[in-house]
Amino acid sequence: MRKSVKNNVSWVGYIDWELETFHGDEYSITNGSSQNSYLIEEGKTVLIDTVWTPHRADFVENLKSEIDLKKIDFIVANHAECDHSGSLTTLMEEIPDTPIYCTAAFVKSVEGQFGKKGWNFNIVKTGDSVDIGNGKKLIFIEMKMLHWPDSMATYMTGDNILFSNDAFGQHFAVEELFADRANQCLLWKEALKYFVNILNPFAMLIPKKIEEIKGFNLPIDIIAPSHGAIWRESPMQIVEKYDEWAKAYQENQVTIAYDTMWEGTTKIAHKIASEIHNQSPETVVKLFNISKQDKNEIMTEVFKSKAIAVGSPTEMNDILSGVSGWLSFLKALKFKNKKAGAFGCYGWSGESVKILQDRLKDAGFNVIEENIKSLWNPDETDFEKIPEFVKSLLS
Length: 395
Known about the structure:
Largest sheet: 7 strands, mixed
Distance between the termini: 55 Å
Strand content: 15-25%
Low-confidence stretches: none
Oligomer: single chain
Structural class: alpha/beta
Number of strands: 21
Shape: elongated
Number of domains: 2
CATH superfamily of the largest domain: Ribonuclease Z/Hydroxyacylglutathione hydrolase-like
CATH architecture of the largest domain: 4-Layer Sandwich
Strand order of the largest sheet: 1-2-7-8-9-10-11
Number of helices: 13
CATH topology of the largest domain: Metallo-beta-lactamase, Chain A
CATH class of the largest domain: Alpha Beta
Mean pLDDT: 96
């Protein structure tokens, strides 16, 4: 069922209420999501993006119920990832000669995923435009590495809509369609989580891209992303947040993340949390067990933090495997301007703290020299080191 976005623009996407993970199992979904596809019916009829592969049959059938597919003059493909292009193969079986406007990188990507189908690609780059009738046109803006090489956004004049693709979205199911109708706490929680876990590795590109978009001097009344709610009231609020988040964002917060075998490392983690509060009551403290809690939620809190403390016992001359995988993800997210400290227990050789320090440095953190390294279960002698550890972490 279509939903009106503005004038002759409709949402024709798919709300995925039951979705639990995304990007394989790399991204957790806790409030549903959507794949947003848009239909423009001006002098020309244009489809912007499709939906994820599992929903391709439903998508095409729903589209058929709304419009004669042969009336679609062309398709704009903003991104080749299969949550956006996954229904193209089924749709193009119905209308095989329909032109597809996309970047050159899109062609390589979509043909790499689905094979060469002989589709009618029309390659565009930043600043190119196409007339859609009634005095309106679409202007294309490449969004390279936000978050794939082929990504682009499309701006519609007249209605002043920016179809922003993966930028400015959320994995969030909103039946009411618009951000101003959504639960605001969940909206902003999901918008931040989305930014941190998907776009932060490319944060250095975002301020420049925002300036480029502003440089077109195009009025933006609506930002319509590819996932989640559409921004129509003060739409630039999400752009301003991206600009803020992209500049080594941090709050007065410290996050503690650890795993444990026999609870010794847990005891240290809890003592560190208490000491942070003791030394700096205004500092927010978050504490997570890496093996038991959602890694995407942990990373969102790490992003907000000015410092982190990471703990693991030594196991087989190394750190626990769950912590090792978590640190790989931490490195991939490319956080900037944050301190880190390491702690852990050991019974024999005791390598974990040094390994944690090296891995944290490799992930781009400013690692303090102080550490908590406890033989067997921690005792008061170990706990006496925590105030200095925390002081260095907070300074």
